[in-house]
Amino acid sequence: LNVQPAGRILSRDDLVEGIRRGHGSNFAFKIAIRDLRVRRVFDKEHLILATYTEIQAGAINSDPPTNARVSTVLFGRAEQGGPLRWLHLHEAKSALS
């Protein structure tokens, strides 16, 4: 599940499909991640809760094209040490600084 800054809700499949469709379509588009913090690790459930700030530049589907968002993400693993899977992502608009 992805809650976008404007409140639109996307399923994981819709989000992944949008990323795949957009890949390579806007060479000016750049993303930087900063302020990454692991907030909590739930060992028994194989879950990781984290926050980060995402800075986008040249985004053609965002207004303004250069923007920032604070994101909270919940990752899960099928088993300890397995690959991370995006379970939930909530994004909120943030001022650039």
Please provide a written account of the structure:
This protein is mostly beta strands. It is built from one helix and six strands. The chain has one helix spanning 12-22, and strands at residues 2-3, 9-10, 30-42, 47-57, 67-76, 85-94. It has a six-stranded mixed sheet. The protein is globular. The two termini are 28 Å apart. The relative contact order is 0.22.
Summarize the structure.
With 97 residues, the chain is mainly beta.
Structural class: mainly beta
SSE run: EEHEEEE
Count of alpha/pi helices: 1
Note the gap between the termini: 28 Å
Rg, Å, rounded: 14 Å
Give the strand order, joined by hyphens, for the main sheet: 2-1-6-5-4-3
What value does the average pLDDT take? Answer: 90
The biggest sheet, with number of strands, parallel, antiparallel or mixed sense and barrel status, is: 6 strands, mixed
Give descriptors for this structure.
six-stranded mixed sheet, mainly beta, globular
Q: Any chance you could write out the topology, listing elements then pairs?
A:
Elements: E1 2-3, E2 9-10, H1 12-22, E3 30-42, E4 47-57, E5 67-76, E6 85-94
Parallel strand pairs: 1-6
Antiparallel strand pairs: 1-2, 3-4, 4-5, 5-6
